[in-house]
């Protein structure tokens, strides 16, 4: 497979949505968003996402939208705007909705004070019915998390924490500008469990500067010693044309395609050996975790937070740059903070762009999600669900032939299965069904740049 990693060293989307974000456009406005929100089915629960776009230092590997601040005033002002957005959106809904999944990402939500955490949670409970069994999850930077902070988010109802680690080795940490000793991470996890937040995820990375296979295996062993229920093993996406700060990372220090493949596969094999179940192509979970159960039940999904057991058909994003997924399509809030704030101050939904989904999008989205989650899809069954014929995908099946010949996937009648040792290539298989990506590859069309497939 090492040779194939070089042969198919292409750039394709991660497929946390379909159509993917590069194809959103400014024809989707706040007025459109208002209509979509007003048409939601009150019987269907929501998922809510909150983007906190602040950090106190820039990690050079980061691909997120965030701002560096060294005082709290901008964060406090942002919270006031966020509270107004909660009211704006709640007022657009046809009734009071139930919410079963809440997720905070960034940036770093750890920048919020416990007091402001409580204010935001209180407002959400005023405007939504937060289920007693709701998953309330936060992405957490151990470098900023104090015991008082952990105590505060536990009091606010947080019951799952996702710990950013990336790598435990000093040379790698220095190269990505994120100094985080193992002891700091362990202390925060101990506090989380002490205050009742026992569902813990951990984010690790491969493909970072100065990483070796030995170091990646060592970081897996150290991570597992802290007993997280889930581990995400992400490949570093070096996209300096999109993220200027990534130019601080020397490309000469990055592992090549062969080394990335070896790091990914050796670490994955080690996690399985240590008792974790493979979820999709980059997540791992304990066998009794809800992700593993959803995988076994055929109910695993994929959204902007990655793999999820969340069944909600609507995810509403709050905050600058946040993306919402509704039955009618996708919405993305303004990216410049000033534009986001200005819209809220005018009592307008801060939607900058988006895309409405058509029947063909829904069909392809289902095919791609099956591939990304189950590593297989029965085209005949999905096509029948959408009242079409699997023969209509002959062009896509033709695109898959090189992968079939190279042993990456099998094709029996209309059933596609990604081979177990070829999981990291699944994005390439999914890309064969991406009509937007394949149109962009045609002469005269703009080509969108993405992260490396493996």
Short account of what is shown:
This protein has 2 domains: 337 residues, Alpha-Beta Horseshoe (pyruvate-formate lyase- activating enzyme), CATH 3.80.30.20; 82 residues, Arc Repressor Mutant, subunit A (Orthogonal Bundle), CATH 1.10.10.920. About 2% of the residues have low confidence.
Folded structure, characterized:
The protein has 454 residues and is an alpha/beta fold. The chain folds into 2 domains: 20-356, tm_1862 like domain (pyruvate-formate lyase- activating enzyme), CATH 3.80.30; 359-440, Arc Repressor Mutant, subunit A (Orthogonal Bundle), CATH 1.10.10. The chain is 38% helix and 21% strand. It has helices at 2-7, 30-38, 73-92, 114-127, 147-155, 170-175, 182-194, 213-225, 257-273, 290-297, 337-345, 359-374, 379-385, 394-405, 426-431, 435-440; strands spanning 46-52, 54-55, 67-68, 98-106, 129-140, 160-166, 199-206, 230-235, 277-279, 283-285, 301-303, 306-308, 314-318, 323-326, 329-333, 351-356, 376-378, 409-412, 415-418. The chain has a 9-stranded mixed sheet, sandwiched between helices. Strands 14-15-16 form a 3-stranded antiparallel sheet, covered by helices on one side. It has a 3-stranded antiparallel sheet with strand order 17-19-18. The radius of gyration is 21 Å and the shape is globular. Mean pLDDT is 93; it is low at 442-448.
């Amino acid at each position: 497979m090492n040779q194939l990693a070089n042969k198919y060293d292409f750039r394709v989307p991660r497929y946390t949505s379909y159509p993917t974000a590069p194809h959103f456009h400014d024809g989707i406005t706040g007025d459109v968003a208002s209509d979509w929100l007003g048409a939601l089915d009150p019987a269907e629960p929501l998922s809510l996402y909150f983007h906190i776009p602040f950090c106190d230092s820039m990690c050079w590997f980061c691909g997120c939208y965030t701002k560096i601040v060294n005082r709290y005033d901008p964060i406090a002002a942002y919270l006031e705007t966020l509270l107004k957005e909660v009211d704006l959106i709640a007022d657009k809904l046809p009734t009071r909705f139930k919410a079963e999944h809440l997720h905070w990402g960034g940036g770093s939500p750890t920048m919020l004070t416990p007091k402001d955490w409580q204010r935001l949670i209180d407002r959400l409970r005023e405007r939504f019915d937060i289920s007693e069994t709701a998953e309330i999850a936060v992405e957490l930077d151990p470098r900023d998390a104090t015991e008082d902070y952990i105590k505060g988010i536990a009091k606010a109802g947080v019951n799952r924490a996702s710990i950013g680690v990336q790598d435990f080795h000093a040379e790698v940490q220095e190269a990505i500008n994120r100094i985080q000793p193992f002891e700091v991470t362990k202390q925060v996890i101990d506090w989380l469990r002490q205050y009742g937040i026992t569902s813990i995820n951990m984010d690790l990375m491969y493909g970072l500067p100065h990483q070796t296979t030995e170091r990646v295996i060592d970081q897996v062993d150290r991570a597992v010693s802290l007993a997280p229920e889930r581990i995400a093993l992400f490949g570093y996406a070096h996209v300096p044309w999109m993220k200027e700060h990534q130019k601080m990372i020397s490309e000469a220090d990055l592992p090549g395609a062969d080394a990335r493949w070896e790091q990914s596969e050796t670490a994955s094999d080690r996690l399985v050996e240590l008792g974790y179940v493979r979820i999709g192509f980059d997540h791992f979970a304990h066998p009794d975790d809800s992700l593993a159960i959803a995988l076994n039940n055929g109910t695993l999904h994929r959204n902007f937070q990655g793999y999820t057991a969340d069944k909600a058909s609507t995810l509403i994003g709050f905050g600058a740059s946040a993306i919402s997924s509704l039955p009618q399509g996708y919405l993305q809030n303004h990216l410049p903070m000033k534009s986001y704030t200005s819209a809220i101050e005018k009592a307008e939904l801060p939607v900058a762009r988006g895309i409405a989904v058509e029947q063909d999008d829904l069909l392809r989205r289902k095919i791609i999600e099956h591939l990304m989650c189950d590593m297989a899809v029965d085209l005949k069954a999905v096509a029948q669900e959408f009242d079409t014929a699997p023969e209509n995908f002959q062009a896509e099946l033709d695109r898959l032939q090189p992968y079939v010949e190279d042993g990456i996937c099998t094709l029996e009648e209309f059933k596609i299965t990604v081979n177990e040792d070829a999981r990291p290539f699944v994005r390439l298989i999914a890309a064969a069904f991406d009509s937007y990506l394949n149109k962009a590859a045609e002469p005269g069309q703009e080509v969108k740049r993405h992260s490396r497939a493996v």
